[in-house]
Design goal:
The structure is a single chain. Helix 4 packs antiparallel against helix 5, helix 4 packs across helix 7 and helix 5 packs across helix 7. The protein has a six-stranded mixed beta sheet, covered by helices on one side. Helix content is about 35%, strand content about 10%.
């Protein structure tokens, strides 16, 4: 009996299966029960949602079912905690705003930036001076500013951020304080800055220096501080600290307000 020679013939290749070309899927839109309002479609961190057209970004995020643990504070446009960036369909620009005051729009793609990583210098106010040397020491990146004005365009308060950075470069603490006075420290200027300046912290240093060394002394303020140290307002303070929420709310909304 002789052994058969092993066959060296390879099996024929099977023809590849024809498959339809892959099509990139658009983000699916989550259907949420509606109640008669007019709705728009927005995209929150890549997922689509139908939300009321009269909602703020913050309201829309919560309407979509998200629980905001960071990125919400006063909800009135004062604290700067709800910094948001977004794009609109057919527009290459990145827009910035506060989620509590910016209204949604059809096709908006958005994400929140509840905290911006930012260098914040540590200094002893009793050992620094109100001049340009202090700016150079603690925020030398200020002198990399190229005056592109991107920071001003990103500011939800419409502050002239570039102008107060130029004031910091000159050591003009009064102008730095005055122009940046309404800064909310939301960080939207800093995330757009090509020179990587942390504008809001530069402004904070300038305001502190002006307040400690340059601002005119107020007789009324000095008098009030002396009264507080003597305990003149301790009883009222204790009353506020032990008051119920409803009572505090009434006091707040019934207070005298400037028109």
């Amino acid at each position: 009996m002789t052994a058969k020679k092993a066959s060296t013939k390879r099996p024929a290749k099977k023809a590849p299966k024809k498959t339809a070309p892959k099509v990139k899927k658009q983000a699916e839109v989550c259907e949420i029960p509606t109640h008669g309002e007019n709705f728009v479609t927005i995209y929150i961190m890549g997922s689509g949602y139908k939300v009321p057209e009269e909602a703020t970004i913050m309201g829309a995020i919560e309407y979509a079912g998200y629980q905001i643990k960071r990125g919400a504070g006063c909800r009135e446009g004062y604290c700067g905690a709800c910094a948001t960036i977004y794009r609109m369909p057919g527009d290459y620009k990145i827009y910035t705003g506060l989620a509590c005051t910016t209204m949604v729009a059809e096709g908006m793609w958005l994400t929140q930036i509840p905290a911006h990583p930012a260098h914040k210098a540590i200094y002893d106010m009793d050992r620094i001076t109100a001049d340009v040397a202090t700016i150079q020491k603690f925020y030398p990146e200020v002198f990399r500013c190229v005056a592109c004005n991107t920071c001003s365009k990103a500011c939800p308060q419409e502050l002239e951020v570039m102008d107060y950075i130029q004031a910091a470069k000159r050591g003009d603490m009064e102008a730095l304080m005055d122009i940046s006075f309404d800064c909310l420290a939301c960080g939207l200027c800093a995330i757009r800055c090509p020179a990587e300046i942390v504008q809001m912290n530069v402004a904070l240093l300038g305001k502190r220096l002006y307040g400690k060394y340059l601002a005119p002394k107020s007789e009324h303020l000095e008098k009030r501080i002396r009264e507080m140290k003597r305990g003149k307002y301790d009883r009222e303070y204790k009353k506020l600290m032990t008051a119920e929420k409803e009572a505090l709310s009434k006091l707040y909304y019934d207070r005298d307000m400037e028109s």
